Amino acid sequence: MHFEVVGEITEIELIASGSGIRILSVLRKRHGRGRWRKLKGKALVRLADGSVRHAELHWFEAHGIGKRKMRIKRFLD
What's the pTM? Predict the structure, then answer.
């Protein structure tokens, strides 16, 4: 699903970090070593069809590398 985050991501929470991340080896192979964390938050997203909805997002992040593999987990509206 292709989407664009509109505005800021709010209510950011840590889900897992370090060895608690199941795909840690994949992240390191594709994007490099770093202090990887899995996070979740809420934001407005614009979907491919142009509609704007409130959604819960999950993504992986490391310092100096940035956000990777962002996906919509559920719609909140």
Answer: 0.90
